[in-house]
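Researcher: Go.
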Amino acid sequence: ATSPASTLHNAMMFQVVASKVSSRRFGLAVTSCVGGGVGYHVYSNEGNQTALLQLQSVRAVNEHLSLVFPTMEALLRAGRLAKTAVTMAVDYQLYFMTKKHPDSFLSKMYSGEEECERQRAESLICKLQEELDQAQATYVEGSNDDDSANKETINDDNAAEQNNETKSKNAKQHMLSIANQLADAEDALESGNFSSVHERNANRLLQLFRANAGVYIKVGQHLANLDLLLPQEYLTRLSSLFDDAPVSSYEDVCTVVKEDLGSCPHELFDDFSRDPIASASLAQVHTARCKETGRKLAIKVQHKGLRETSKGDLFAVTAVVRIAENLFDEFNLGWICDEMTPQLPKELDFTNEGNNAEAASAHLQKTGLDCVVPHVLWRSTTGEQCLTSERVLTMEFESGFPATDVERIDSIGICRRETAKLISSVFNAQIFENGLVHCDPHQSNVLLREHPKKKGKPQIVLVDHGLYKRLDPEFQESYARLWTGIVMADISAIKGACESLGVDKMYPLLAAMLTSRPFDEVIERSQTGSLDASPASGGGDKAVIKLYAQRYLKEIIDMLDIVPRQMLLIFKMNDCLRHVDYALGSPSNNLVIAGKYASKRVLDSDISHPEGTMLGFFKSWIQYANVLFRINSYEMWHWLSSTSIFYNK
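Model: Structure:
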């Protein structure tokens, strides 16, 4: 039986050949070729000579023609994207116009009474945001002035010092008071029953990503991790993309497996599940059992056609994002496309993912951390059958649930603090020790379970190793010195490390981006000597952080053009980890955990330097011992606190 695509192909090729030979009165016959191709034999009616025209590279022609339909589908997806972008742009333009005059006739026509009520609430939030912005700037400037004054007027009398401290405390209390008011206003807004412009457009974007699937799901997942940059409505809606990705049909799965491995799933495995146990943006996972050993396996199969259409989809997304950046000053998300374009082809090659998984597993075993990476099966036990290819990845099955499922964590008696500490330790070990970093640790890729041999202790199952980055040793060293400086609140060390990364005047901003905390807290810790920042109470703390990110959004985007490209994937990893940490209730001080691994990396770099002296080595050991002592003291204090009645797990 000939498929419609093959029939179309044959008809097209018949016309091409017939047009070339009709002037010479050739006769044409179509025959089959070895390997399933199509051969075209042309017989001359003149001179009793038979000419054979065998088309070259028939398979290549077939492949080119097979891209016709995927290309048309990509254009359809691009059309949906353009329509959604225009609709969202018009909606936001009307929203900004009516927001300035919430009681106007235009506002009532556009949004109705409920929307007017919501816009009045949003106007109050904007007013509080401006007040918080001003109060935060006053506090930061005051902290800087106090820090300079302390260095220049060491011998001033106690009254002057107390006056400076009082001003700083008053400024901070004023800032936190406004932050709490802002948090209350935002909570009241979110608890309302009326729809907002953000909610409408978040739903539009979610529908677009689900309809287009593939690359679009990947973009949506990344947006869902930008807690500090996007409105809550977007985060809430787009988070569903982690667990509710489109599912390929069983027929498509069989097609991909047979094309890559040469046989159908039921011929390669026992008990191959027709329905996937999980589906993601690029692939879905089925369970099966090994024919030789009976082991339970997880088979990751790429969505059919994704490899062929991904370039067109990326081009369409990038084009729309660039247009939006030119139209709206507040829209600056082009860096996401800049990083996805070179990385996506690597993620679509599952042999690359298999190699990453093996390298990560080997390193984590050396660290002694309770983290498991599923074992990759490249070939069958007998070695006769290939089980992993560019679009099919066969692994041993490892059970687990998302690390952000706090209800299940609490129900089985695992400590959230230990869980958060383990997750942070795993990724900091990759950054500062191995240099091969998993850059996509979102909630569906970091699984959790109770340790099979340590009751009540967490064990991490790390999956999806397609997006990795190999860090340069020079970058590792500079990044480690930056984190060590941040932990110790050493302003000069932070500035020096940022300069080595290409950042000069904006070093406070880079430090704030890495920690998701205002830089004034580093200044405060430099005065108090504490490893703990002084957070605001309730929702005010998050309001301060979010406003800080929004206030310096343009500077943040400019920063992304300055820092080394490998830093961008580190930012993405930090976004994912921060999202997981927030879901767990932020029970662990990631600053301390990163500092422990970073300071060890700095020590290793110093003692391995060929031009180092004994005095320099001794100084490096003293500095490392100082960092370690402060960190261990901090952890001991928290351990004692956790055993008291004042600690609430």
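Model: The chain has a mean pLDDT of 77.
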